[in-house]
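subagent[fold] <- orchestrator: predict structure for attached chain, return tokens only, no commentary.
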Amino acid sequence: MAGQSPAGRVALALGSGGARGYAHIGVIDELHSRGYEVVGIAGSSMGALVGGLHAAGSLDQFSDWAKTLTQRAVLRLLDPSITAAGVLRAEKILDAVRDILGEATIESLPIPYTAVATDLIAGKSVWLQRGPVDAAIRASIAIPGVIAPHVLDGRLLADGGILDPLPMAPIAAVNADLTIAVSLSGAAETDGAQQDSTASPESRATTEWLNRLLRSTSALLDTNTARTILDTPAARSMLNRFGTTSEPESSPEVPEDAGLVPKLGSFAVMNRTIDIAQAALARHQMAAYPPDLLIEIPRTCCRSLDFHRAAEVIGIGRELAARALDNYRSAPQAVIPPPETP
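subagent[fold] -> orchestrator:
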């Protein structure tokens, strides 16, 4: 009968992690292909964006659009700008999301949905469960120091991943057969580590260039494309305000006998520090609200702003979801709910 879920009803907690959040799309695709019905979603940051789009029935449209993005298009959408609270306006990418969502409100969605943000003044997590979906997403993705905070209902809100990178609590009361947490801070897999270490010369030049000039985050695009877009008086003024120079940023010296200890630049250290903190917070959340199934996306599958790699990362999410679901179904302790009866 229509509306039945042969495999079971699922509640999803979708974690934060920038472009790695594309993997959430792959996870949802795999769940649908196996007959699961998603009956509740909570998300932080990119998890809030993917979760909101899915709850609104617009995820396929967003996925198709994301797969068309190039490195040049990503930079234009992120809209670099020096402001008091962030270096990326990101309003253009939010405009694209708004075009897909329309005027959807959270309370009108067919699937219960919670976007998690952080109240910077009160120092607390905030669950957004009413109001426009696009406003909730905008608040939840406000990465500190990168995207300016968002004022909503008199509160100054920023990225949900600051305090709650894997929001398990909002789905605790959902009537579901299976709770699934999707973490974007998983340990590096061998393949992922190898891929990262064998990055193309063009990718390595990208990282070096943006670390030196933008002083803000990971690589977005190749050097030639960046120069084409940013070699303007306004852009040069913006970069000068960062105090940039034409010399490569130096990395701490590592003794020759340090073995496999990697050389990390200042921004690599910053990004790794954030990853460690978020992984610890996620473990804390799962200890309080343990999921039935944890799907971990390796943090090395892509960099936080590699939004031009949608197809690849979606595929990684689907593959890892398939593997986790197969292991769960074959585990002796697993209880697979039977189909609902009329």
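orchestrator: received. Logging for downstream: The chain has a mean pLDDT of 78. The two ends are 8 Å apart (CA to CA).
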